[in-house]
Design goal:
Growth-regulating factor; mainly alpha; transcription; activator; about 70 residues; GRF; nucleus; 2 helices
Length: about 70
């Protein structure tokens, strides 16, 4: 038997490697990658959600409290 088998012969449950949201994001990134590999422009509607996500993270983590004074 392989590593996934317990000593008593029953199969252990394996954790799911991705949440549904993570898997959806992975598929999105894979689609963008396919455009890049094909050497064709990536449609803006595929890139905009990533840009918005980065801007949201930047606003949250790189907020300058002195800039609001």
């Amino acid at each position: 038997m392989g590593e996934e088998a317990r000593m008593d012969g029953r199969w252990m449950a394996r954790p799911v490697p991705f949440t549904a949201a993570q898997y959806e994001e992975l598929e999105h990134q894979a689609l963008i990658y396919k455009y890049l590999v094909a050497g064709v422009p990536v449609p803006p509607d595929l890139v905009l959600p990533i840009r918005r996500g980065i801007e949201s993270l930047a606003a949250r983590f790189y907020h300058n409290p002195l800039a609001s004074c």
